[in-house]
Every structure is written in C-alpha cells, then in structure tokens.
Amino acid sequence: MLASILASGLAVGAVYALIGITYNTMFSTSRVMSFTAGQLGMLGGVLGSLFILRLGLPMPVGLLATLACCALLGVVTEVVAVRPVLKSLDQHLYVLSTLAVALLIQHATALEWSTEPQPFPRLAGIGAGIWDEKYWLPVAACAVTILGLEYLYRYTLVGRAFVAIAEDNFAARALGLPERNLRMASYALAGAVGALAGFAGGQLLLAFFANGPLLNFYGFIPVALGGLGNNRGAVIGGLLLGLFQQAANFMVGGIFSSVAVFTLFIIVLLARPQGMFGAPAARRV
C-alpha cells in the first residue's frame, strides 16, 4: 500500500506541479492568472491520443505535434484573452476573459473529441507494477521541465529577458526589451509545458475533456502553496499535494479525500498567506 501511495502520489503530484509551472510561466510576464492552464493539460492528453492512436503517428512526432498545437493555443490565448485586458483600466477582467477561453476549449473538445474518457497509448512500454511508465514518466517530465527552465532563466539571453519583464516590466520596456513579443513567447512556452503535463500523465488521466477543470483547480493549489511565481515551490507543493491526496484516497476515499485536501490547503494559507516558499509582500514607501 505504501509503495502504491508513493508511486501514484508522485506521478499525480508531478502533473499538478507542471500545471502550476504553466500558471507561473504565464503570470510572470503578464501579471495575469490565465485559467486556461488546466485546459492545456487536458489537450495534452487528448491531442496525444489523437495523433498517436487515431492518426498512427510515431510517438516522438505525436509529442512534438501536441506541444506545437498547445504552444500555438497559448499564443492565441495571449492575443485574444490577455492583451485586450492589459489595455483596459480594469485589468481584473482577465478572470472572465480567460475563463471564457477555457470554456470554449472544453466544449469544443467535448463536441469534436468525445464526452467519454478515451484510452491513451503506452509510450515507452517500459516497467510494470509501481515502476510502470505511467508512474515515472510524469516525474521525469517534471524534472526535465524544471531543469530546462532553470537553465533558460539563468544562462540564456531570452530567459534573462523573461526574468527582467517579470521583475519590472516598466523598467524592461524603458531598456528597449520587446515586452509584447516576450509575453507571447512565454505563453507559447506555458502552452508547451501544459501539454507536456497532459501527455506525460495521459496513461493516468486518460484523454478526457473533463480533465480541464480538475487540472485547473488542483494545478492552482501548488502555486498557492509554493508561492506565486516560484517554480521550485510549485514542484514541491505539487508533489506534496499528490502524496497527500493519494494517501487520503486510500484512507478515507471518495469525496472525503477532496475535503481533506481543501482543509490542508486552507490551513497552510492561513498560516502562510504568501505560500510556503513565497516572500511576504513588501511595499516601498
């Protein structure tokens, strides 16, 4: 039982962590919480099943096609739902605009794909039991993603430009950085990360249109727990959330496991409103 809890908890937690990173990546350059993150994860599973199972494409080609489609959708989200809001006085309208795009994606997927869960193909055919690929692939994808982002932000010019925009977009614009292009690139990157979450976790979550709202909510919890904009915190928060959720499923099961997750979430936020790894908000006087 302990091994099953650890294997499934780490796998599900890695998916939640990747969705949390998707939230952070979009937020960093726009200061907008885009609620399309879960839909990108859902599409990662749906498009992966479409390209590999239905169209018969090889796994690497199917993965690249899935990442490209979701990256394009990320750019469309920035242009349609985020950019107009940033120009308005009431920037909190992003809640409605991004939710509207998320609902459009979900219902279009239900109409064109299926309203029933569809199978997701085995990708590598490696492992069995608790070492089955459906458990370690999400963890491996999460590790590769966080290492890749750390390298991008620390050692590349584009990554440093992302960091500059995230820290102070007004100063970055004054220095001549192309804020709009960088914001579009960050949304494309977020789309690819979200797609990778759904693709790597496809064997656990299946290709199901209703995964979008689930991933939206459970992917936001690691962001709140780890601190907004903190990718390392999102990874730790996501893995802890997955382990706690699976342990609660084994112990109490059903809806009570969700109640346990929400209770823990509220307790942590009451004790640390900025998240476990977030810095307290400071205002310069």
TrEMBL record:
Its main location: membrane. It holds the Pfam family BPD_transp_2. Keywords: Amino-acid transport, Cell membrane, Membrane, Transmembrane, Transmembrane helix, Transport. It is a multi-pass membrane protein. The keyword Transmembrane applies. It is found in: Cell membrane. InterPro entries: ABC_transp_permease (IPR001851), BCAA_transport_permease (IPR052157). The chain crosses the membrane at residues 33-53, 60-81, 93-114, 135-153, 187-210, 217-244, 250-271. The keyword Transmembrane applies. Belongs to the binding-protein-dependent transport system permease family. LivHM subfamily. This is Branched-chain amino acid ABC transporter permease.
